[in-house]
Design brief:
Elements (H helix, E strand, L loop, with lengths): L25 E13 L4 E11 L27 H14 L1
Antiparallel strand pairs: 1-2
Length: about 100
Amino acid sequence: MWQFLTVPTDTAMPRERAGEQLAFRVAGLRFLGAVSHGLTHRRYEFEAFAGQLAHPRSALPLGPAQRWASLEQLDELAMSRPQLTIARLLRDEVA
């Protein structure tokens, strides 16, 4: 299943520093919203952000199972419920 880039963070880290966890620079990083997801044995908390890449996508390292997707391509990808919610937050922000 496809998912947005996810990085673990220290819960005490201010949102303004979220971009520091990425392996690339993002300009204009802004908070989209928080998403909670509970399973029988675990609870997940996601904070979603949006921004613009500071470098062309071709300059970014991707693993063998990673790929970039446009907003339009998201409808074609299998995603978990939290990822679908983040996609909706992103679409609402762009609209």
